[in-house]
Design brief:
Elements lengths: L5 E4 L6 E3 L1 H12 L3 H10 L2 H6 L5 H12 L5 H10 L1 E3 L1 H10 L4 E6 L3 H5 L1 H4 L4 H4 L3 E3 L10 H11 L6 E5 L2 H9 L3 E4 L3 H10 L4
Parallel strand pairs: 1-4, 1-6, 4-5, 6-7
Antiparallel strand pairs: 2-3
């Protein structure tokens, strides 16, 4: 029997493939700017990181594009670009579907609440596997790799760190999860994910 009762997945780079340059290019086209200018304004400036950490609301985030790239975005404009840049990682979702027979599944992603608000449009494949257990860092006022975000998420999920396996594609986020007491593994492929799940007797 496995010691793991919850598997907590990252979103971008694990459950889905997110083409950030494509999303930046979409926004740049909308506002008539070079993608490099848009990236400087919203990525390199720390604006996105502040939104991920819940320092601004979703509405403030959309308005905040104005002073940074020359025009605020509507939720629909943001969603159109985000959706075009996002595709489900079906091979990983197949592993998750199998694991769901032996453990609970949940998502913790560094993102604004726009992602959870529009998840059924952005990535409808997730709901059948994860139900309502889809969370973003902005909900918890901290972002990965801060240990606080993992612990706050687990409190909502009524799960213990020692019985939770966290899966993320970024090493710093894996290390943050371990610092919070979770088991954690860095994702590289669906094949290696399958092997890790077997190691934990979840398959």
């Amino acid at each position: 029997m496995s010691c793991i009762s919850l598997v907590l997945f990252d979103l971008d780079g694990v459950l889905c493939n997110y083409d950030r340059p494509a999303h930046i290019a979409h926004i740049a086209h909308l506002v008539g700017k070079d993608p490099a200018e848009v990236y400087e304004g919203i990525g390199a400036s720390g604006f996105d990181a502040d939104a991920d950490a819940g320092k601004v609301s979703a509405a403030e985030y959309l308005r905040g594009f104005g002073p940074r790239i020359g025009r605020a975005l509507t939720a629909e404009e943001w969603l159109e670009g985000r959706r075009a840049a996002t595709t489900a990682a079906w091979d990983v979702l197949d592993v998750a579907a199998a694991v769901r027979r032996t453990a609970r599944l949940a998502v913790l992603s560094n993102n604004t609440t726009l992602v959870t608000e529009y998840i059924d449009v952005l990535l409808p494949a997730l709901r059948p596997f994860f139900g309502d257990a889809i969370h973003v860092s902005a909900e918890f006022g901290a972002a990965k790799p801060s240990p606080a975000v993992y612990l706050r998420c687990l409190a909502v999920l009524a799960a213990l760190p020692a019985s939770t396996l966290f899966v993320d594609d970024l090493e710093e986020n894996v290390l943050g999860a371990r610092a919070a007491g979770l088991r954690a593994w860095r994702h590289t492929s669906a094949t290696s994910l399958d092997g890790v799940m077997r190691d934990y007797h979840l398959l």
